[in-house]
């Protein structure tokens, strides 16, 4: 399957407006009425399918995360009826007869917000600034200059649609389509509002407080109903989606609800046992190193992982131990190690291949999923 973003010719972080614009432009070139060539129609289907996914925040998220957004009805093979295409152009109302209302539902909007690992764990309230379409105050969304109102369209006489006779292999077919002069509204705004040029909305910056709950991870989206773009003609606003991007921590590595940390300890501490401290998201915590600890040992600090977004409690912080073999020995240290080896009866020939008791495989399987 071709990349949907490439199909539409937009970048991966294109906003709803850019996606819509790109689709409209392509649809104008590829529409069956304009170019009935089968190959062009194949391309039109692909473009429409891509638009169907990328214009829907939920489907788009699913696609971004590698899922198949074409499950269920109306996928690639389902074909696209005329009403689907009209829906894509004009919102609802492809099949509906008569003039359409000017007020249309607004687009959903998407904004990405970066949070640190700590913020993702404990949650945070963020003030975000979004540039979006808001209702034009001058005309209250009507699009008309103060004191004026829309006039009946002279082409369709207010019906909002025009009829056309086309010849097909089945004979003459009468088709009606939205009136091009008034875009199917049945009325035209002859004196548009100077502020919004008849659209009923203007672009403005808004500051919004968002509560980001503890446990979120990259790709999660928080839906703020009615905080998206206001629709044209005073239509209701779409939703605003806040997508989380969690930045990497300096040394804590996240795996779902668990965190991982690599801790190097000197050979002597590993041999004799010791107590050390590590900095966790909850401040310093004691880690007890048992005498005779090997490299690859994992020590779990329960409930010091991430907050569970769903469910209760927290994951664990898993400390992966690495034992450091001493290097750069001075004369005295070297003598001591030699003496130590002598007392242990160890020499170069003491190394032997050991039958695996399962621990090596465990180590490989359980190795940090970094
Ligand atoms: Zn008209
Ligand atoms: Zn206005």
Gist?
This protein has helices spanning 4-8, 16-30, 38-54, 57-64, 82-90, 117-122, 267-272, 331-344, 359-366, and strands at residues 109-115, 124-135, 151-152, 161-168, 171-178, 187-188, 201-212, 221-224, 240-246, 253-255, 258-266, 274-280, 283-289, 298-301, 317-324. By secondary structure, the protein is an alpha+beta fold.
Q: How would you portray this structure in words?
A:
The chain has 370 residues and is of the alpha+beta class. The chain is built from nine helices and 15 strands. The strands form six sheets. A four-stranded mixed β-sheet has the order 10-11-15-14. Strand 10 and strand 11 form a beta hairpin. The relative contact order is 0.11. It binds zinc ion (ZN) (2 copies). One zinc ion (ZN) binds next to loops.
From the structure above, extract its key features.
elongated, binds zinc ion, alpha+beta, four-stranded mixed sheet, 370 residues, 27% strand, 15 strands, 9 helices, three-stranded mixed sheet
